[in-house]
Amino acid sequence: MTDAAAQLDPARLIADIDRRLFGGFVEHLGRHIYDGIFEPGHPSADAEGFRTDVVDLVKELGVTTIRYPGGNFVSGYRWEDGIGPADRRPRRLDLAWHATETNQVGLHEFQDWLDKVGSDLMLAVNLGTRRTEEALDLLEYANTSVPTARTAERAANGRPQPFGVKMWCLGNEMDGPWQLGHRSADDYGRLASRTAKGMRQLDPSIELVVCGSSGRSMPTFGAWEREVLEHTFDDVDFISCHAYYQEREGDAQEFLASGVDMRLFIESVVATADHVAAVKASDKRIMISFDEWNVWYMSRWEEQAVAYGPDDWPVAPRQLEDRYHALDAVVFGDLLITLLQHADRVRSASLAQLVNVIAPIMTEPGGPAWRQTTFHPFSITSRLAQGRAVRVPVDAGTFESTRFGAVSSVNAVATVDDDGASLFVVNRSTTDAASLRVDLAPLAATLGRDLAVVESHLLHEDDPYAANTLDDPERVGVRPLEGARVEASVLTADLAPVSWTAIRLG
Ligand code: AHR
Q: Which CATH superfamily is domain 2-9+390-505 in?
């Protein structure tokens, strides 16, 4: 057992939390839409064909804004294919994922589904195979109330009122050589700037996200952000970050340092954006939309990639269906802590993705839906992290990471609201439990009352590779953290190795 000492002082304010930090991402990919959220023949399906068991789980997850329709998919997508009578919609080849897109779900159906789950739409436009004009057509169709040919078409398709989409992504991962229409930073920056200017002429109230890097290890990382922002700084509000993590070569300890990589990623992008601001003598601050983040065993996907025959373009194949274990959920919880630690600049984030595809929710066609291990840290954090994010530096032991040197074994953040506070803490050590002591005196003084533990949630398994499956869907969950208590304004708790914990103080 090692010691971990901290103080929860509301004066260490990071920022008010933007609820968009708890966003999600739905892509037309694998069984995400078809046989995931939309399965007309399913016993739980409603009149529109949406699985109500999935709707209930998405609500419980607590996702706010949901990015749609991709991802790599959007870079070849024609949004017009997904509107109008469903039986007249074209089937198309989806080059990004080598599948057939039936277009039975498009903008209208997806908005209907969002209305059921209570989340907001964040739309991505195709800047891969398409240009400014098609983006403007979509924006006019979605957001305008003036009578035009586009808005008449929308009304005829069942929505007289605009969708009123606030956040728009200017393409997806345009830095990635795998992306349809991949281009240089200069080329993309010019196109994104032109498109953004046109979109703002049409609707000045929208918020725009320009593509940053697909990962911190991209060869163009840093230079890409600088060059793209040199073109678009005045036109956009956000720059995107995407990051996926996985355990490599059985090195769980190194995997548990993933939060450090995410921190460095965020800090580098902030520094780059602020450098461009300095060169432009501007006090504008570009925010980060971390609009793809998760654990993803991408190497498994690459190794198992199916060699399709020339005529083999399946509909809704099983793709990217990672099964998450307890260790993944602990790393995932640490990534959420890291996002909250940067709530001043990360004002929006999207867990990639939601259902079946690298997802917290799994389904079987005609069968049940269940929660993966990662569901728990997300739903608990989204519910408990209210009000303001507050820094909680922890004085703890370290472990040696091959990539990052000495890394703190314990990482934490808190949120403070009018009714109390929530503490989120991860023990990244694979070997040592930690005895946590948090001085709550400054918090008690600020709130003007003594505090007690009102709820606690521990995610830890003796077998870190335990997972939830179709046959055993509740194998891994959370349970109260035994022994967590406050005495004389000091919170004490023992944290098992490889564990994630949330404690509500009220
Ligand atoms: O989330 C899966 C894929 O990861 C997305 O389509 C793409 O944007 C990223 O590379």
A: Golgi alpha-mannosidase II (2.60.40.1180)
